[in-house]
Design a protein that fits this description.
This protein is mainly α. It is built from six helices and no strands. 74% of the residues lie in helices and 0% in strands.
Length: 137
């Protein structure tokens, strides 16, 4: 078709995994660098329960989870966790305070998490070598 070579779909999943990894590593790092007290105050302002506990938990989840995604370790589980985090962040926080216009990125992170949970890590990952079943060539 139009002279475009067929590329295995796992490479597309890999691109999503790596993009999500970068997003989460940067988000987690910025939360730590900005100060967890500041993050907790922001969480409290939008009604996140127990912001003193939630802020360091989310910052750690995003930084460590992002690093795990970068290397493709426990990808399906991390995908599920991030999908759950962003369903909550999107529908119970973001939409409630700012409406739909500020939520499309969060919706894409939910979709990316679901994709990784269902499809696995894609190519070039620790999971592909150790945890996933071998693929047909």
């Amino acid at each position: 078709m139009l002279g475009i070579p067929k590329i295995q779909s796992e490479w597309g999943v890999t691109a999503v995994r790596l993009a999500m990894a970068i997003i989460f590593i940067v988000a987690g790092w910025l939360k730590f660098m900005g100060g967890l007290t500041t993050v907790a105050r922001s969480f409290a302002a939008v009604g996140v329960p127990m912001p003193g506990v939630t802020a360091p938990f989310i910052a750690s989840l995003e930084l460590v989870g992002g690093l795990l995604l970068l290397f493709g370790v426990l990808t399906r589980w991390i995908g599920i966790i991030f999908a759950i985090e962003f369903v909550i962040a999107t529908f119970f926080v973001k939409f409630r305070w700012t409406g739909f216009t500020d939520g499309p990125v969060e919706i894409m992170l939910v979709a990316g998490g679901v994709l990784l949970a269902l499809a696995g890590p894609g190519r070039v990952s620790v999971d592909e070598v150790w945890l996933e079943r071998p693929r047909e060539p």
